[in-house]
Design goal:
Length: 271
């Protein structure tokens, strides 16, 4: 079973018309979201069209270096999103580098293991398999890490008095910061846990739905979806742990002092 229904540009325009309804409702209710909605839709369309053209070229060229270059670019853009989503950020290169490094290491490691041992494509770096898989893993790890770091940095500032009091009473930095670390880890893990719990009963994932619509046997689509979901959960967990403990290390020193000077001001306080 490999038949699929080809979509026309008219089909896409008809689907996009629902966004016009949303925009009209936003204007009527004075929500002020119509401009953001339009920009997001245009941005998504342009990006997907360009990605489609790029992937088509990569699939035909089959170059490991071009595949690596695209993967690096994906990691850099995702890292920028982690940095942008935080209300308070680590100052300097750490603000961008820590989240990006944790996400890239976790995503690349899990993807590499999956390509070599589970997918078994020849060669293992074949862009048709490597880039879509890396993108799905990277996107979910990005969300978890950004939530964890934002929660940690905000909580450290809010609870700084209690944290410093624990240190004065003899606790080391890890003991004093454990409550906010635990909350940050929960914030990073919860979206992935909720997604796994609701998959299949509440909704069908996009990857599985796309495969079924393109004619793949549902049982095979389920196998691939389970594989990707497990990989996403593993990479997200590893990335969240690395980024969170890295932030704790950066926000304290060897003398177990809290270093809030290494955090930027909150966005609403800037300027």
């Amino acid at each position: 079973m490999n038949d699929y229904i080809a979509l026309t540009y008219f089909d896409l325009m008809l689907a996009a018309s629902f966004l016009l309804i949303n925009g009209a409702l936003s204007m009527g209710l004075k929500l002020g979201l119509e401009r953001k909605l339009a920009i997001a839709a245009v941005r998504m369309t342009v990006q997907l069209v360009l990605v489609g053209l790029l992937l088509k070229s990569l699939f035909s060229i089959l170059s490991p270096w071009l595949t690596l270059l695209v993967a690096i670019a994906m990691g850099m853009f995702a890292g920028r999103e982690i940095w942008a989503r935080q209300n308070r950020r680590l100052r300097g290169i750490w603000g961008f580098g820590l989240g990006t490094g944790a996400m890239s290491f976790a995503g690349a490691s899990v993807t590499l293991i999956a390509l070599v041992t589970m997918i078994g494509s020849e060669p293992w770096w074949t862009p048709r398999f490597a880039l879509p898989m890396f993108g799905m893993i990277l996107g979910n790890a990005m969300t978890g890490i950004s939530l964890a770091q934002d929660s940690l940095h905000t909580s450290v500032v809010r609870e700084c008095t209690a944290i410093e009091a624990k240190i004065l009473l003899g606790a080391d930095r890890w003991q004093a910061l454990f409550p906010v670390v635990r909350q940050a880890l929960r914030s990073g893990f919860i979206p992935t846990i909720n997604g796994m719990a609701a998959t299949g009963i509440v909704f069908l994932p996009g990857m599985m739905t796309g495969q079924i619509l393109s004619g793949v046997d549902p049982n095979e689509a389920v196998k691939y979806q389970l594989l990707i979901t497990f990989l996403i959960a593993g990479a997200t967990g590893l990335g969240v742990l690395l980024a969170t403990f890295g932030s704790v290390w950066r926000l304290s020193d060897d003398r177990h002092r809290l270093r809030l000077d290494r955090l930027s001001k909150a966005k609403e306080d800037d300027g």
